[in-house]
Specification:
Layout: E1 3-6, E2 10-16, E3 24-25, H1 48-55, E4 59-71, E5 75-87, E6 93-96, H2 98-101, E7 106-110, E8 117-125, E9 130-135, E10 159-164, E11 172-186, E12 192-199, E13 211-214, E14 219-228, E15 237-241, H3 242-255, E16 261-262, E17 265-269, H4 272-277, E18 286-291, H5 296-299, E19 307-311, E20 314-318, E21 322-326, E22 329-330, H6 334-342, E23 349-356, E24 359-366, E25 368-369
Antiparallel strand pairs: 1-14, 2-3, 2-5, 4-5, 4-7, 5-6, 6-9, 7-8, 8-9, 10-11, 10-13, 11-12, 12-15, 13-14, 14-15, 16-25, 17-18, 18-21, 19-20, 21-22, 21-23, 23-24
């Protein structure tokens, strides 16, 4: 089974800050060759080359250094991670992935291999794997911010271009299509990220944080993960949708952090197969499998399941409530319910229609603040 890889940071070495000679151990990674990049153009007449030429100056390489140990005999050892990022304004703000700079004690960016510039971390959000940096001394540079598009208009089959620094190879361009929408991946803190864009444009270690652009050259996503047994590209990459990124970046610039609404349930979509094989109170909606202790859902009296069943090779915990509506909106999938919750703020009230052994009822849930990691 393929493993999701937090995609694209590449470890470039471990430096001994004090001590032994021969200070850097380089970790070499090899990937399988990806699919050939197609040529394409759109009604505006832009080609892959046109998009690359107009966008490449806004793509940066991110070098994050962190201390991994401080040995009294050998001194401090520093790990360095390479990723990608892109400029979003003339003030020098750069978007990248949280996992690229997660533990960084020092961050630098470069527009070419010879001009590393220090940067500060403005804010980072592990729940969406997004971070914002600011280049020090950006006022003295002629920066090229990339134009942000909208992920709401993205369709399966749309042509896309990825620009980044795979394996440290600066400003590499690959092209492909949008393979699927509404994918779910796991964030660095263990929570789910919904509505993710899947692409077959080649993405490898070092691409993390780089832009995924549409055929007009506008950013529609931030490349974040790959699905791979080998750790190299096999044509399945994932990008955080830019509409989500815009909201997160706005909050990071204003507050330095993002607060996500939290309900506290583990859930699954009620499939046709499940409804046909297991007695449920309704035949569509969201099955509540577990309720985390002390969560808003627990305080509202929502119940999880108590019986494990396997239907079509998939395991479900049944016997709990099924949610069919949220704030008057019909809910048919776990992704739809998560989308409603994420559109809220901590402290907001969410009205749910819940079906259980005793029939249907309306439940009011006061949403909490998402913890750092899933609990319970």
């Amino acid at each position: 089974m393929a493993a999701a890889v937090l995609g694209a940071g590449i470890a470039v070495g471990i430096d001994r800050a004090v001590g032994d000679e021969g200070g850097t151990t380089v970790i070499r990674e090899v990937s399988n060759a990806g699919p050939a990049s197609p040529s394409f153009s759109n009604s505006s007449g832009k080609t892959i080359g046109n998009i690359y030429a107009s966008s490449r100056r806004g793509v940066v390489q991110v070098l994050a250094t962190s201390v991994v140990s401080d040995n009294p005999f050998f001194g401090a050892q520093q790990a360095r991670l390479l990723g990608s990022g892109f400029v979003i304004d003339k003030s020098g703000h750069v978007v990248t992935n949280y996992h690229v700079v997660e533990n960084a004690s020092k961050v630098e960016v470069s527009f070419s291999g010879n001009d590393e510039m220090p940067a500060t971390v403005v804010g980072k959000d592990p729940s969406t794997d997004i971070a914002v940096l600011r280049i020090k001394g950006a006022e003295g540079r002629a920066l090229t911010p990339l134009e942000l598009g909208s992920s709401a208009s993205v369709r399966v089959g749309d042509a896309v271009v990825a620009i980044g620094n795979p394996f440290g190879l600066e400003r590499t361009v690959t092209a492909g299509i949008v393979s699927a929408l509404q994918r779910e991946i796991t964030a660095p803190n263990g929570f789910a990220i919904d509505e993710v864009i899947q692409t077959d444009a080649s993405i490898n270690h070092g691409n993390s944080g780089g832009p995924l652009l549409n055929a007009d050259g506008r950013v529609i996503g931030v490349n974040s993960q790959i699905e791979s047994d080998s750790g190299g590209n096999v044509g399945i990459g994932f990008a955080i949708p830019i509409d989500m990124v815009k909201s997160v970046v706005s909050q990071l610039l204003e507050h330095g952090k993002v607060e996500h609404a939290y309900i506290g349930v583990e859930m699954a979509t009620v499939t046709h197969e499940l409804a046909a094989n297991v007695r449920l109170p309704v035949d569509q909606g969201v099955l509540v499998e577990r309720v985390r202790p002390g969560s808003p859902a627990a305080e509202a009296g929502i119940h999880g399941g108590d019986t494990q069943v396997v239907v079509d090779g998939e395991s479900f915990l049944v016997g709990g409530d099924v949610i069919t509506m949220a704030d008057g909106r019909t809910i048919e999938s776990a992704e739809e319910l998560r989308s409603v919750v994420t559109s809220k703020q901590p402290g907001d009230e969410l009205s749910l229609e819940v079906h259980g052994p005793d029939g249907a009822k309306e439940v009011k849930v006061k949403l909490g603040r998402q913890p750092n990691t899933p609990v319970g």
